[in-house]
Write a structure and sequence with these properties.
Radius of gyration: 20 Å
Distance between the termini: 30 Å
Helix content: 25-40%
Structural class: alpha+beta
Length: about 325
């Protein structure tokens, strides 16, 4: 298959060819970066993974609309129809409106650990600047991978992005067990600071733009993806729109969720399609407004409060998490 050599995993692509990575990096457990579920990624990335795992005869491009030979549009398709053809949703998001997409669940422990694992391998200022200035298409994966391995990481930034594991929880468990144990891998990441959420959003933006530039061999293929996107924290007003749009996706019956001793809940997702879900009495979520979170957390005692309840917070806590919204900056 023409696309076989392009099998990559966005959040951990440096794990391939680990035998040529310096010894210091070889010691990292790369298996922890491998996807284990369809629900962890946007449809295009998951399709890529499953296509490889199942030895499917169909190429990855078939799954996301890029064919091996970049087939011409049917002659009966008008230029107007071509322009209006919907583009592929940014990774790990569901559509909110024409310019906004949102992650279906709060960022999980597992997703944040993958962010930290990537930073341990290669995320220096030089790498970040390069990712911010990539061409729109035609980026060679192998060449860029070699460059990133040589550029190294940023220990100071990595240190600031790490979650403190010595903090107490409000239930019978320590933070290290909650953050690193498999039973809580899809539970929301907690004790998260605003600057950490912002850096995570920047990383998602950079990885998405890199993915688009790599998967697109030419300008025509690049048009299947949005030209420029930005992951960031949602505003309180955007959360109002979220609750209005996904009013039927509010889960109040907690009995359908698997039991775990934590006071937070694991992510909820069907197996074949990403969908937005909100769980009251789970976590309040950080917004772009200063010191304002939104939603009902497990500690909320006001049964009359609305879902878009504004909550003021003063420090990271075990009842606060976050998710990203993705804005289409250029169609």
């Amino acid at each position: 298959m023409k696309f076989t050599k392009y099998f990559i995993f966005l959040f951990f692509f440096l794990s391939v060819n680990a035998h040529i990575i310096p010894i210091r990096i070889q010691q990292y457990n790369f298996d922890a970066l491998r996807p284990d579920s369809y629900r962890d990624y946007a449809e295009c990335l998951s399709a890529l993974y499953h296509c490889k795992r199942s030895n499917s005869t169909a190429s990855f491009g078939t799954h996301i609309g890029i064919t091996d030979d970049d087939e011409e549009v049917d002659e009966k398709t008008t230029s107007c129809e071509r322009r209006q053809r919907p583009k592929i949703a940014p990774p790990g998001t569901v559509k909110l409106n024409d310019t906004l997409y949102i992650q279906p669940n709060p960022v999980s422990n597992k997703e944040y650990r993958k962010f930290l694992a990537f930073m341990e391998i290669s995320y220096s200022k030089e790498v970040r600047d390069s990712l911010d200035n990539l061409p729109l298409y035609g980026v060679n994966y192998e060449d860029f991978q070699k460059y990133m391995r040589l550029a190294g990481n940023d220990d100071e930034l990595l240190g600031r992005m790490k979650i403190r594991l010595d903090l107490p929880l409000s239930w019978k468990m320590d933070m290290n067990e909650y953050f690193n144990s498999s039973p809580y891998r899809t539970n929301p990441v907690i004790y998260i600071r605003v600057d950490q959420t912002q850096e995570y959003c920047k990383w998602m933006t950079r990885m998405t733009m890199y993915l688009y530039a790599h998967l697109s061999k030419n300008e025509k293929q690049r048009k299947k993806f949005y030209t420029r996107v930005e992951y960031r924290l949602p505003s309180p007003e955007e959360w109002d729109l979220v609750f209005e749009t996904f009013s039927e996706n509010i889960i109040t019956n907690k009995s359908i969720l698997p039991y775990n001793p934590a006071l937070t809940y694991p992510a909820v997702q069907p197996k074949r399609r990403l969908m937005f879900y909100y769980l009251p009495e789970n976590v309040s979520e950080i917004t772009s407004a200063d010191s304002i979170a939104i939603g009902l957390s497990w500690q909320n005692r006001d049964t009359t409060a609305s879902l878009n309840n504004r909550v003021r917070y003063y420090r990271p806590s075990d009842w606060i998490s976050f998710r990203c919204i993705c804005q289409i900056l250029e169609y």
